[in-house]
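Progress report, Aim 2. The chain analyzed during this reporting quarter is listed below.
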Amino acid sequence: MTIKVGDRLPNTTFRRLGPNGPETVMADEIFGGKKAVLFAVPGAFTPTCHKNHLPGYLNNMDALAGKGIEVVAVTAVNDPFVMDAWANATGAKDKIEFLSDGSADFAKAIGLELDASAGGLGIRSKRYAMVLDDMTVTQLAVEDQPGKADLSSAQRLLESL
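Predicted C-alpha cells for the chain:
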C-alpha cells in the first residue's frame, strides 16, 4: 500500500555515517515532534538527483525554515558511505540529513519503491517529496518518471507551504 496524506510514517530504520562509522537511526528520532521535509531520490550522484533535485533544497534551506520546517532530509537506496560522500561533495553535510535506505526497506514500507533493474540499478526509491508534521504526512508529491524533479522540487514544495 502506498503512503498517502494523513498516514503516519512507519518508524523504520535508516543508516547514516556517524563519528564511529555507520549507525542506525529510527525515523521517529529524526521526524518525531517536528515539522519536516523528506525527499527521496533514485540514487546519490545520479544526474537529476545531483544537479537538480538536491541543490534546490540546499539553496532553499532558509526559505523552508521560514515556513516552519525544522528538518530537511533526503533518502536514497545507497549505502551510508555513498550518502556521506554525497553530503560532503554537495556542501550539504550539516544542513540536510542524508539517510541511507540501503536495502530499500523504507521505500518498500511506504510503497514508493522503483524497480530500476532494467537499467542495472536494482530496486530504488521513486522520486518524491513529503511534508511531515510529527511523522504524519501532510503533503506528498511523487514524480511519474525518475528523471523528473518537478512536482517534488523545493520550489514547488515551497509554493505549497
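Residues 43 and 120 are 12 Å apart (CA to CA). The beta strands are 13-18, 21-26, 35-40, 71-76, 97-100, 113-115, 123-125, 128-133, 136-142. These observations will guide the mutagenesis work planned for the next reporting period.
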